[in-house]
Amino acid sequence: MGDIIIQGDFNAYTNTQLDFIEFDNVTELVNLDDSEYHPDRVLSRNNLDHKHTNNSGKLLLNMCKEAKIRILNGRTIDDLNGQPTCITYNGSSVVDCTFISEELIDSIGYFVVHDFTSLSNHRPISCAMFANFLSVPCDSHQLDSLPGKFLWTDEAIASYTENIQSQMFKNKLANFIAKSFNDSDSITESTRLC
Asked: Which stretches make up the Endonuclease/exonuclease/phosphatase domain (predicted)?
């Protein structure tokens, strides 16, 4: 399925319900021929939002189990308690979340629930990942040299001013503006022909 990172406001209460399959141990399974199968990791998660799990939360937790993605809130050093991300008239909640592929959990540098701002009743959230970069040798193709810089001499300025004020240029510009174009390629082609 590939690596996944999803972040946003899901309006889902998940409390501390599991987002992984508990007791998913392959040693207990009989006749398992799938060597590609990897059991879910047990990853504890805290959450200061003690609201009961709602239907959106249940759907979200099922998606996590099926897609092998995990809620990052309440699982990192910078957010060990699962800080509330939203405050409304009826209390606080953890509805702004980051979801990440289970394989990427160890690549997380931090996950932070930031302070409230005057812009919203939601706290901004952010995360960072460690990345490995491979140095790939570049083919030794000969690249064309970049064109030289145009020098605006007094003569060039005078020529430009004369041409831009000419009736011929004004007619070409009026014709160009009057046309309708379907895409950028037709615009480019039209200006090339002028």
From this structure: 49-125
What is the pTM assigned to this prediction?
Answer: 0.62
Q: Examine residue 142 and state whether it is found in any structural domain, yes or no.
A: no
Per-residue H/E/C for the chain? CCCCEEEEECCCCCCCCCCCCCCCCHHHCCCCCCCCCCCCCCCCCCCCCCCCCCHHHHHHHHHHHHHCEEECCCCCHHHCCCCCCEEECCEEECCEEEEEEHHHHHHEEEEEECCCCCCCCECCEEEEECCCCCCCCCCCCCCCCCCCCCCCCHHHHHHHHHHHCCHHHHHHHHHHHHCCCCCHHHHHHHHHHC
User: 163-186: per-residue pLDDT in tens?
Assistant: 888 998 888 888 888 887 777 777
**41 and 123 share one domain:** yes
- For residues 125 and 172, state if they share a domain: no
Average pLDDT over residues 92-104: 93
Q: Looking at the domain assignment, is residue 149 inside a domain?
A: no
Note down the domain range covering 19.
5-129
Tens of pLDDT, residue by residue over 25-78, are 655 555 556 666 777 888 889 999 888 999 999 999 999 999 999 999 999 989
